[in-house]
Amino acid sequence: MASSVGDPPPVDALWQGFAGAVVRVALPTGPHRLAPVASGTLGRFPFSSPVHIITAHNPGGAEIDAAANAVRHRELHGALAGQTCIDTVGSAPDGSMAEPGFGVLDIELDVALDLGRRFGQVAIYRWTPETLSIVGVDDPTTVDLGWALTALDG
Asked: Which of 2, 46, 72, 129 is most buried (CB neighbours < 10 A)?
């Protein structure tokens, strides 16, 4: 049976979606596309510490309406007051199912996971010089991938 709006997709489908997603990151040098690759890295890691990419959209993987997602995004932004953040938008490679969020610098993984948990997320991303990892918030699963970073126009 297909899931409808409001129903979370099966867990395997969620994790496949996470592994295939791309993230638009707003770097000081301009917008870039961060994409998972099987292994290795392509591009220069632009930070001195890991970046934890977190969204508040669609808690538990269940689609909710745009207005509710916008409220949740503002709440996450408020929860990150005082943190160094960059704007992000995670999406399918074709740009569909886009979810704004934040890349948070200078926080420990457990703090990032707590934020993900607080906002009902299944997983967050952890981006390091070596890997782009998908880390389960309440599930011990971690999927380590390589990454490619490319500059975008505008």
From this structure: 72
